[in-house]
Amino acid sequence: MTELLNINALSVELQGKLILTDVSLSLLAGEILGLVGPSGCGKTTLLNTIAGFIHQTKGELIVRGMRPITSKHRIAPEHRNIGMIFQDYALFPHLTVEKNILFGIGDLKNIEQKERLTRLIQLLKLSDYELRYPHELSGGQQQRVAIARALAPQPKLLLLDEPFSNIDARLRQELMLEMRQLLKELNMTAIFVTHNKDEVFTFADQIAVMHQGRILQTGKPASVCHQPNSWQVADFLQLGSWIPVKRNAGNEYESALGIVRLCNDELSKVELSNVQRCNQKIATAFSYQLLLKPRFIEINDSQNYNVVVEHISITEQGYHYFFKSLSSSSDLAFEHLSYYSHDLFELGQSLAVNIKTHDFLFFDK
């Protein structure tokens, strides 16, 4: 597959403040990328820079078929052949569905306009809605009109800013699956912004996690979740609970839940993975955070109590608990340890838990 988008060392400064720093990203033709990160990390700014609404300060942006875009060599948004769907859809309220879709292709011959309109109406299941106005449509129907309008000019790249945030939860999954199938049918390359990691797993081929104007990690969603490369990535994706651990002699780590022992290979992986992009000298650090997923925790009635039940809720996976370490005075104490079980415990009940042996992930928080 050929590369459609390549971003090299892109930086954006607005009103004297650096919003994006050294952003590099590539995307193959036909791929869908989910761009995630906390509010204010620069996701929408990156979309607007790719679209041309914001000018980059440094770096290079290359869309296949166009000359490289830099701070000195710019291309206006209307000449980039990039479509964008805004969070509120930005439909023209005084135009019908048909005229909204045709808005960006008025320079084409009438027969070609009609062909594209007919195909998009069929693909997006908007038949019988052509003469309605946006206020006469449901949220899902408005979204489909916005998608059709963005696709009508047949852009090389489609940008979507939180496209599912205004959709009822019951319809969201269905719409994501339908839209993904549509983009794949059209071999359309797309980048969408979201705060919801579950949307990425449903909709995207790749994920990019942003933090404070930088991209920390990219890759297939399952790979990034299995092997996050930094504390920020793991924490934003809510991959598990954090408990403090202290390194003792050799390969031994101490926690409020007992001793964790690693083999030499595991230890070297831990130390290597923690020389992170935050540029901290992990070799001299003695305190770490262990990422602990619920499936790696087990109840052990044969040992002394070490946690107390702090919170109980009911989920599809059974009861969801938050445990708190029994001792709160230690440097190794923790507040929230997530655990799922079909067994019912009582609020305030003391329990004994073990950490199962697995591929441990440590980070210097």
Highlighted features:
365 residues, alpha+beta, Rossmann fold, 2 domains, five-stranded antiparallel β-sheet
- Supply the CATH superfamily name of the largest domain: P-loop containing nucleotide triphosphate hydrolases
Structural class by SSE content: alpha+beta
Main sheet: which strands, in order across?
A: 5-6-7-3-8-9
Number of domains as seen in the coordinates: 2
Q: Can you summarize the main beta sheet?
A: 6 strands, mixed
Looking at the overall shape, the CATH architecture of the largest domain is 3-Layer(aba) Sandwich
**Element order: H for helix, E for strand:** EEEHEEHHHEHEHEEHHEEEHEEEEEEEE
Mean pLDDT: 87
Would you identify the regions where 5 or more consecutive residues have pLDDT less than 50?
Answer: 265-285
Roughly how many Å is the radius of gyration? Answer: 25 Å
Count of individual beta strands: 20
- What is the CATH level 1 assignment of the largest domain? Alpha Beta
CATH topology of the largest domain: Rossmann fold
> Helix amount, in percent?
10-25%
Number of helices: 9
Give the N-terminus to C-terminus distance in angstroms: 38 Å
Beta content comes to 25-35%
Shape: elongated
